[in-house]
Amino acid sequence: MNRRTIVVALIFISVGIAFLIKLFILQVYDPSYKYSAESNTRREIINYPARGLVFDRNGKLIVSNQANYDLMVVPRELKKMDTLSFCRGLNISKDELKELFREMRSKLKRRKISSIKPSVFYKQLSAEQYGYLQEKLYKFDGFFVQRRTLRKYEYPNAGHILGYIGEVGQSTINEDDYYITGDYHGINGIESTYEKFLRGKKGYEYVLVDVHGREKGAFRDGHFDIPAEAGKDISLSIDIELQKYGEELMANKIGSIVAIEPATGEILTMISAPTYDPSLFVGKKRAANFATLNQDTLMPLFNRPIMALYPPGSTFKPLNALIGLQEGVITPESKYECYMGYSVGSFHLGCHSHYSPLDLRHSISNSCNAYYCHVFRNIIDQSKNSSVQDGFELWKNYLVRFGFGYKLGVDFANEKRGFVPNHKTYDKIYNKSWSSLTVVSLAIGQGELLATPMQIANLGATIANKGRFYTPHIIKGIENDTIPSKYKTIRETNVDSTHFRPIIEGMELAVWGSDGNTAGIARIPDIRICGKTGTAENPHGEDHSVFVAFAPKEDPKIAIAVYVENGGYGSRYAAPIASLMVEKYLKNEIHPTRKWLEKRMLEGDLIHASE
Amino acid sequence: MPQNNSLLKSVDWVVVIVYVTLVAFGWFNIYAANYNPENPVLFDVGREYAKQLLWIALSGVIIWVIFMTDSKFYVAFSYFLYGLSVFLLFSVIFLGKEINGAKSWFEIGPVRFQPVELAKVATALTLARIMSRYDFSFKKTSNLMRVGLIWMLPVICILLQNDTGSALVFFIMVLPFYREGLSGNVLVFALIGAVVSVLTLVYPNVIILAIIIASCFVFLAFKIQYKFIGYALFFGIIGFSVSYIAFKVLGKDIRLDLFTLVGAIFISIYLAISGLNKRLKAILPAIVFMWGAIAFTISTDYFVEEILSEYQRNRINVLLGFKDDPLGAGYNVNQSKIAIGSGGFLGKGYLDGTQTKFDFVPEQSTDFIFCTVGEEWGFAGTALVVGLFVFLMIRLVILAEKQHSVFSRIYGYCVASIFFFHFSINIGMTIGLAPVIGIPLPFFSYGGSSLWGFTTLLFIFLKLDTNRSELIR
Ligand SMILES: [Zn+2]
């Protein structure tokens, strides 16, 4: 071989040998790089942004944040440590610590947590625990403290509306890769509905830590850090003072109050009784409190305004009257006799005593059952309908347009749709041989019909608006964003606005009429309130007291539905409570002449008395 | 198909096996560099390893095309390919996409292409063609000029793209030139130049000066008597000591570089005097060389400080030990060394690396892919890779020597030399033996352009090798 070839080959070989020597030193001979690698661990520190604040419609702060610290562990970085001092720091026994470690190992085994990523070891340190650990933490390899924010509730009210914050479940993590195990998210209420706005954006900071878990500075000069973005503040349409007042009125009662601003569909109050203090769901005591509330037979966690289903009862009569007017089967002047009820052959549906015959307005104010049996049967049996099924569907479609039988679309995930039967329901029950008389109890809001208090309140708002409504919603504003467009879109019913006048007048007479009013108790000085009582039949005990109203008559500012379970007649509990709510909202205080009524309602106890 | 059979028989399967081994091992390491142990996904089509698999498959197509093409084509079309690649290199300066400060990529839709890869192949073919002419000699100025021009055109274009790393690759052509008769002195000069320019950046001037002077004497030793060297060194030491004592007496700060300089002046004076006396021709060039080297040393500092851009300076500054700030400019190399060093003898195990995940090491799957090898496969893995590369390069040189056709031989040397440059700079930088110049490790680094470039380089030679007994013109 050529000498020059050998020179070239030697150059190649000598570089190769130089590399091998250097690699041998680096990888085998000199152990310092191994130590460097061990101490060269990158830790991802998650900066949890503050959740968005929640305000009421008047700008009052309802929900804010408080700082909270979790003790985190990176299992792989754990070293032998002084457990005694550790226990003292956390103020727990050695057995409790063992249990914590056992739990950690079991999670590791089930691959619930990673050995190289931080996970929560001990949740929500107390101030003393945090103070002690902050000083001694360097002694415990693999542990560090993670700052988070917890919710702080400025009022002990509106628990059902607000929902709460809890750890994310596996299914949520699978659905949305924003979350990792140990993250918190909104559960129920607006915390859940507006989670994406409220949560903000987690920030990530990468720091180098040495073998003792001490931070040595930013990883690559913070090149990879992502700053956290604070959550967006939201304002709710509720009036927190009104909410508070309503909850006081509903104390020791079961039921709900829903108030809506007719012009916008904004929910002014949404009360579910019995209720709970949202602060119960903050911090370490959450699980215990949740269990207690969950086992309570009065079901305080049940969000009645949107989940409880009741027969609408007489509050449904104005709607039947409106359908009758629209269909032209009655006029405001139509009169029907009532002989203590409605009788056809052997069929009899009772009514209370009042003068007879009544016209449309007085049928509402007197809540005559017979009148509505006529109206209902006229609608179903009118000649244009080829069959009872056709007639029934015609009637049913009106109900649907008024928001019954389907979810209204409020901003709560667990809203129930209620129940409006269709003709197939009866075809099945009566084997296709039925008539308008068979289902005539629907005329007075009984029978198979079921509606949520929200749907009844929305009926009140729709009547106040003369036939149109906005989907009820509780969101009023989102910081630097707009509320969902569906809450800005008006929904029309198929009843002309001209037909509402006699209905509204009938509801006015129900409160203010001199001859046979059913809700005189609801009169408020200077406020022309219109309402309709109802009594929802309850086969298990005393009937439910129902009242739907709006006020003032001209340019209504509030529509309200009140349900008081086992409250008897509508005028006994529901009407007084509704009127007090309306008065409180519009006047901000209760007139001295009605203080007695307020006192009676506040003190009324339908829970403990019956026991 | 008898023709194909003979082709298969005449292919050098040893090289093919080494190639396949390197490409496959490279792919596994790209997979590991992309693997996230916190979110283990077996195969994600969006990741680099999936794309690399596609590039590898397309390399197969390239190999097939190369083998189907007649060897004579590469001679005949070398000028055309050269012209095309210079054109592309030139137009990319204006039309290219800037990545990492260099405007060296064409981007057409989702496809990115670096014309320098084609230029390497075309320049190697063209140089081989010119130098294989029967009357070619480096002693003829016209030949020297022509080779210099062919060599310089792409280098200038690449420098204009601000892609210094790729331009440096062309300097390795000194090896084929040397093989084909270029004076050995040029090789020594080049070597010393390279060593000096690298060392200048690492060590204080004094050591460099000492090295320059020492290498001067090595150079002289081949030409003149050892007596001269002894005397010269003696005078040098006198100069050094005198200035040292003078500074000591005057109580000034010790300046070793200055003392060495004084020593060097003493040496040159002695050499000049004795050279004039004895009329030794070799001494004059030696003095000129020494002072040239000293001037070069000083100007290298100037060059680095004043001429290079901030980005280049940082990369060059990142030489072993130059800056010992783990988060500063030396960060990359430090992290790279930690990653490789943490591998130990047998490595942490495949996919079990911790340092080459989470972005500790930059450009994990491209320039620093060797770190993954080091961390997960340990010394066993790195020694294997180094061994395979050296074996491949030596094998290529041996095959080149067997070529009947000069064209094939020169081309083979070019291929081996280009591999050598990439191999030594890329691996050298990951272990702190070479400056951080962003050039890929052949067959290992992620990227279609470089994989295809190296594949083409290698397989054109293997194709030529199948006709080794013929004279290809
Ligand atoms: Zn009646």
From TrEMBL, chain A:
The keyword Cell inner membrane applies. Residues 255-579 form the Penicillin-binding protein transpeptidase domain. One of its GO terms (molecular function) is serine-type D-Ala-D-Ala carboxypeptidase activity. It comes from Plebeiibacterium marinum. This is Penicillin-binding protein 2. The chain crosses the membrane at residues 7-29. Its EC number is 3.4.16.4. It is an enzyme of class 3 (hydrolase). The lineage of its organism: Bacteria, Pseudomonadati, Bacteroidota, Bacteroidia, Marinilabiliales. The keyword Hydrolase applies.
TrEMBL record, chain B:
Its main location: membrane. GO terms for biological process: cell division; regulation of cell shape. The chain crosses the membrane at residues 13-32, 53-69, 75-95, 149-176, 188-221, 228-246, 258-276, 283-304, 377-398, 410-437, 443-464. It holds the Pfam family FTSW_RODA_SPOVE. It comes from the Bacteria. One of its GO terms (cellular component) is plasma membrane. GO terms for molecular function: lipid-linked peptidoglycan transporter activity. Keywords: Cell shape, Membrane, Transmembrane, Transmembrane helix. It is a multi-pass membrane protein. It is found in: Membrane. NCBIfam families: RodA_shape. This is Cell wall polymerase. The gene is rodA.
